[in-house]
Amino acid sequence: MRVIIVGAGQVGESIAADLHETHEVVIVEQDPERVEELNYSLDVLAIQGDGASVETLEEAGIADADMVIASTDTDETNIVICSTVKAVSEAFTVARVKDTEYLRTWERSKTAFGIDFMVCTYLLAAESIVQVAGMPAARDVDTFADGRVQMAEFNVGSGSPIANQTISAADNYDSLTFAAIVRDEEMQIPNGDTVIEPEDRLVVIGTLRSVQAFAGDVSPDEPTSDSGEVVIIGGSTIGYHVARLLEERGVSPRVIEQDSERARWLAEKLPGTMVLETDATDIEFLEREHIGEADVVVAALDSDEKNLLASLLAKRVGTERTVAVIDQSEYVDLFEAVGIDVGVNPREVVAEEITRFTRAGGAKNVALVESGRAEVLEVEVDDASVLANRPIKESVPELPEGVVIGAITRDGEYVVPRGETVVQVGDHVVVFLDAAHSEEVPAML
Known about the structure:
Blueprint: E1 2-6, H1 10-19, E2 24-29, H2 32-41, E3 45-48, H3 54-59, E4 67-70, H4 75-88, E5 92-97, H5 100-108, E6 117-120, H6 121-133, E7 138-144, E8 149-155, H7 167-170, E9 176-183, E10 186-188, E11 201-206, H8 208-218, E12 230-233, H9 237-248, E13 254-257, H10 260-269, E14 274-277, H11 283-288, E15 296-299, H12 304-316, E16 321-325, H13 332-337, E17 342-344, H14 346-359, E18 365-369, E19 374-380, E20 390-391, H15 392-395, E21 404-410, E22 413-415, E23 422-423, E24 428-434, H16 440-444
């Protein structure tokens, strides 16, 4: 597939890095230094020019393009790019926007703006935060099979009850699969004798009930957001959407916002949320309002430094868990190292969403794990599948090493995948695999 990416910022470069090995990728960028840098660092063709210009698009090979991804930092520019593309080609168009109003307009008429697929940065970041905040110790959470199957990645702390146990000893769940362990940045497929070590990251797949139960065993002192209190520091667009999504789940969060006009607007828009107009870096206020008793504090201010400070102050007064919006991707690991539990980078979130959309192919859903090093995908089994009408223990040896059958749903019911389980045509199968096999395995399933 020939893919043209317009905009070589963090999102555009991340998408290109994920796609260039399996697709023909062309990047259009106005900054000549970035063009030269990308031509050397990635196996792509990077050209300088305005992506909204027909001449530039023609130079990029728009006539042969299968997909165009508009990924500049300006919503209006991305919309114009997609409209221009539709005027001169049949390429599938993807636009990244920040303003949810554009998303709502597009959702009402999928032909609006000449855009075939639209992703909203701030809304996706908020959804990611809400999912992670609701699962103790989780770094990443995704759902499959209409919510019947959940994948989650957990940190195993040194004080976790499951640390130093074998997989067999830790597996006390009737519908959970231990898909992978990340240790010292190396990913491995565990077996029953594998020992879970402190600081490991575990990827599990199962029913919501089993994953929630496992989360409680990984970190028993941390309640979920459904039972605990959530405080959101900063009434930014992301902060607003986090509060709104929590309200939809029946949670009544508190939002701390210093700007009086913004605080008034939030109070009007969020009837189930308590809005506090004050400075979240005032430690006396934090203590007076018992912020330390919150189970999760989400820092969604307008700068990475402020979010780091707010998170560390929340930790200082006793908060169990902090989730922070981090705009600069290179800061995520650093901030997590100094005390933030989970850092969410909006650009990485939207880059993953676009990448998984391009990779879906015959899959019903795709989630990227460990920044794209592995994938979890959902497929519907047909007659041509290597899994069809065979026990799992017979079909798995024909798949590449490292493929794990994580879950099966049949006629809306969960089926525990075991070696003797016979996969039937029409089953939905959720599979973990190394990203190196992202093109090969879906075709086999």
